[in-house]
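Example 3.2
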Amino acid sequence: MYLVILMYMLFASTFTIGKAALFYLEPIFFIGLRMIIGGLILLAYLYFFKRDKFFIKKEHWKLFLQIIIFHIYIAYVLEFWALKYLTSFKTAFIYNLSPFLTALFAYIFLSEKMSAKKWLGLLIGFSGFFLILANGESPEEVGKQAAFFLSWPEISLLIAVISAVYGWIIFKKLTHQGGYSPLMINGVGMISGGFLALATSFLFERSILVQNAKSWLISDIYTVLGYTLLLIIIANVIAYNLYGHLLKKYSLTFLSFAGFTCPLFAALFGNIFLGELPNICFFVAVLLVTIGLYIFYKQE
């Protein structure tokens, strides 16, 4: 169980580090750079030290394509674009909508049963998410309102969460049915998704990158490289593959529901390192989600 807590502490730190890195780099370019380097590290390790795990069966190419698109590209590009405008702890909180979506996906696609108490837990949990969505946390977010109480960064993040949940379902299918190493799945997904992100950055961020390139190459290059390598080590190499390892011991639903600790760690790290201060709505929302999670998980 301590590995689960450690994993979510690591995941929480990525929101803080990612937010700090976005002061220097554009989000889509940053994701492309990070994913390509991280994927190369994973595949290089697998090729030289576990060559027997370095393979892709022809019949699984479509699943790997879904990993590239949903598990990496959409999930991370939209998440980090949203992180540019949202606080790190609010991003972490919304991203942990995944337990509820995982349960709904399992109900719809995997025919898992849902009792009345599970539905009650989901409804209470969703009320916490609606509370945090209705509460703007930063001036940048308020300036990007879309419809009702939602901003474009929040909508972007919700799409990223849905994509990530679907990606983990495909991930588990490849590890259990295909017998693939998490390193192989993540390595292929990260490199390919990283190149897609760089292509997207070239289309949408080119003018900003050209304007800022000279300044960060001269004065901030070590900071940029430091944040990039730190995120790669913590997320791409350690936490991501730890999650894949824990999927072999715990159910996807349990790991998703244990993720409620992530926004609490993110709020702590954000306060210490970024000076972010969550308001009372954040803690009320965390309480509602915790109650919803407890009711739901008690029925597992």
